Amino acid sequence: MLETKILLTECPDSTGLVAKITNICYKHQLNILKNSEFVENETKRFFMRTELEGIFNDQTLLADLQFTLPEGSSYQLKPKARKRIVILVTKEAHCLGDILMKTYYGGLDVEIAAVVGNHDSLRQLTERFDVPFHLVSHEGLTRVEHDKLLAEKIDQYNPDYIVLAKYMRVLNPEFVARYPNRVVNIHHSFLPAFIGAKPYQRAYERGVKIIGATAHFINNELDEGPIIMQNVINVDHTYTADAMMRAGRDVEKTVLTRALELVFDERVFVYQNKTIIL
What is the pLDDT of residue 222? Predict the structure, then answer.
């Protein structure tokens, strides 16, 4: 039975890598549907995404790659399959609503296993789309205690990724380490500008002429994880902080769903604290 899988290769750059990898695919009688590659010139690191169709023997294919590619290489063979996510929320509805609506109408190909909130505000919206909603309140708990309960609830659903759809709490290092490069956040500024809380108020006070949004993987530094997608819109002196916030919400939800499309399609390589999008 024919399958479609995605081969992700990262290794030190050297002559003939594309030929070597594609010859191995040919040897395994795999059809290349799409292929893209990139070399990071400063570090001489090679990245390649290859979409393959055929009858796979994963173990033998990966063994051939290991034998052929230079030392320090990494490679993954991933099924081209629908991803499963858990969404974390607080009170703001626009990013969650956009994901729910696009999933419902087929604009975003993903399975939403559950939505988890530290407030109950978005339960009704979530359940209108027949998605389970769970309240995991932070009241009376330390951040570590709350994040532990959060992780326990998430793990019941075994998601591929976790999406922070305007989840307004900082997650502790233990939580971050539990899901490396699997938690996607939307931040309401064009990072690295205005890290942290109240970016629209600070943008207004600074008199900026553009505002934006940034989707990124989280790490242990607040709003400094590898950036996946960004966009901006123009503003001027007539915008209040509230007007900037209202205008920015459309950018936030668009940037988040576009980033999720890239992540779900296995187009994002994380390298150092950056991403390579192929």
Answer: 78
pLDDT tens for each residue of 49-107 = 999 999 999 999 999 999 999 999 999 999 999 999 999 999 999 999 999 999 999 99
- Joined together, the tokens standing for residue 217 give 């993987």
**pLDDT tens sequence across 215-259:** 999 998 878 899 999 999 999 999 999 999 999 999 999 999 999
Both tokens of 151, joined, read 């992780």
Model-wide pTM > 0.85: yes
The CATH class that applies to domain 82-160 reads alpha beta
203, 187 contact by CB (below 8 A): no
* Same topology between domain 3-79 and domain 82-160: no
> What are the tens digits of pLDDT across the range 6-47?
999 999 999 999 999 999 999 999 999 999 999 999 999 999
* DSSP sequence for 135-161: E---TT--HHHHHHHHHHHHHTT--SE
**Taking the domains of the chain in order of start, what are their residue ranges?**
3-79, 82-160, 180-277
Catalytic residue annotation = 223
Residue 11 CB neighbours (<10 A): 19
- Side by side, which strands form the sheet with 74-79? 31-40, 45-54, 3-12, 74-79
Give the amino acid at 142: T
The domain defined by 3-79 folds into Alpha-Beta Plaits (3.30.70)
Distance CA 145, CA 147 (A): 6
Nearest to 70 by CA among 20, 5, 23, 7: 20
The three-class DSSP label of residue 248 is: helix
Bridge partners, residue 3, by sequence: 54
Neighbour count for residue 176 (Cβ, 10 Å): 20
